[in-house]
What we know:
It is a single chain. By secondary structure, the chain is mostly helical. 76% of the residues lie in helices and 6% in strands. It is built from 16 helices and 3 strands. The protein has a 3-stranded antiparallel sheet with strand order 2-1-3. It is flat, with a radius of gyration of 30 Å.
Amino acid sequence: MAALAxxxxxxxxxxxxxxxGKDKSGxxxxxEMRAGGEHVVMATLRRQGxxxxxxxxxxxxxxxxxxxxxxxxxxxxxxxxxxxxxxxLQAFDIVGKGHANPSVGKxxxxxxxxxETGSSLSTAFRKYPQHFDQLFCNLVGAGxxxxxxxxxLDRLATYKEKILGIKKKIKGALFYPVSIIVVALVITAVIxxxxxxxxxxxxxxxxxxxxxxxxxxMNMSDWFVANWYILFPALIGAVWVTLWFYKxxxxxxxxxxxxxxxxxxxxxxxxKASIARWCRxxxxxxxxxxxxxxxxxxxxxxxxxHVYFVATKKIQQEVSTGTGLTxxxxxxxxxxxxxxxxxxxxxxxxxxxxxxxxxxxxxEAEVDEAVEALSSLMEPLxxxxxxxxxxxxxxxxxxxxxxxxxxx
Length: 408
């Protein structure tokens, strides 16, 4: 019976309410609460000795999706307030109310409610795995147990800021060429479907054979005009199906991520970024006192590449049977010698977290330099490709006019 009542209580949909009233000393107080109804809010406040004046249900419409950046900013704000001695629940109130995204405010209010009802902070975070991963929860749990939550939150905020920074650099490096390619394809499609048919009508009375480039382009245009309504949905469908299978197929993830690492220009940048994230994550976990085998669980998914996920699981298995970390990493065959040597020095000197942090710093700097070099290289390369494509179409269309002019 008690279990049934507990289940029913869990199934009750909770809403956010803002309230105001007076405490026992007559001072006006205000706050927010998550509850199943207005009567629950009033009953809870009365038990706390508050004379309720007003209870209002809050609307959470207009909230945007919660991003990694939102969680990173929240972690830094919470770390700063904890170091300043602000009580945990009050810190949640301050951050939640001051956030521009209502979805984040709602999330923080839910976590605050969990903590108020007796849950530990790490347990409350674990109930929202889509926003707080295993690494985040493990570090918060370690901080609670050791009584150094403020220090661990500060370390966690620094870690998330560095990981977010490296993600932005990789996305920035890939966004420019991809966007230019998409624009080039759109422009080409517009020319093929709308512009070239106009020239075709013009050349009907030409009275001579068209140059080969012009004829090829016009044949391509005819095909585009006849099949564009099939081509575009097919391309969009192919992209959607590929992404769908990538998320659900381990074999496809492994194949695609291996291919990404072998790309001529981008592969090296992606590899360095993966190693930087791997080392940064393990350094943060190890410095927090998380056992190595347990830490490797969180590290596996942090590199952002399935090749390194598989390698980390293999390393974890070997380390759990007594193999040294350096030897296990060497057997995985995905780390350069510099990383292995620094790890070996860290193991021998007992300063593994510091050495891994230095490796992460080095590879993050390498990614910065590679992205800058890539940007400088891609701009002229893309302009040449784009100019050749569009210019080739324009020249092909004007060849008959040039031929007619020379004949006259």
